[in-house]
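Box 4.2: Ligand-aware structure prediction
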Amino acid sequence: MAPDPYIIAIDGPSASGKSTNARLIARALGCAYVDTGAMYRTLAWYCLRQGVPADDAAAVAATCRDWPARLACVDGHVRLLVEGYFPEKEIRTAEVSALVPRIAAVPQVRDWMKSHQRDCTRFGNLVMEGRDIGTVIFPETPLKFYLDAAAEVRQARREADGVQDNLAERDQRDRQRPVAPLAIAPDAILINNAGQTPQQTSERILSEIRRIRALQPSAS
Ligand code: DC
């Protein structure tokens, strides 16, 4: 089997099932789960609270450099705590969803996130979900997955959850930004999960993980 800690990278657009599947896989394998979207959302929420305009890249960069945030792993979930607080509900508002792609396009923010996301290996084996995990954060991991479904299918999932979110606009910004855009790593396993249950998708991912890890050189 491959050396530890190992990283399972799960990327894809909004509402592609990343969070549901990443949680199922983390639970099945006993890994720590990292939702990197929540990290960007936490910074967007903090900027909003501090009155920092999301369009002012220099101000966002300065805020990110100085904010009182630290990583903690609570019940297997890695979180960014701001002065000890995780704004779990606040980061899911439509206001934060609308701002976050602008915050996430600032190069200094991406550098800060990259170093903190790579630092998550101190919590052990990881399932990390996001937009650039397989391409930029852990390009060296052999365990890369890209989940997708047609835009209408993803929009319907958000509506079924009762969440107000302009997916098409967010996806376009995430795909078109110059730094670390949403992209499929050349060696990622692409899974279109339209019409699949989370159990079916996560079983498929788990069987691919077993297959790939069995091919890796042993740690000993
Ligand atoms: O996964 P999510 O919808 O919670 O992500 C919120 C936003 O954060 C999304 O619009 C794009 C951005 N993001 C990113 O740029 N890179 C990541 N690794 C994760 C999220």
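In the box above, the bound molecule is 2'-deoxycytidine-5'-monophosphate. Strands lie at 7-11, 32-35, 69-74, 77-82, 126-130, 143-148, 189-192.
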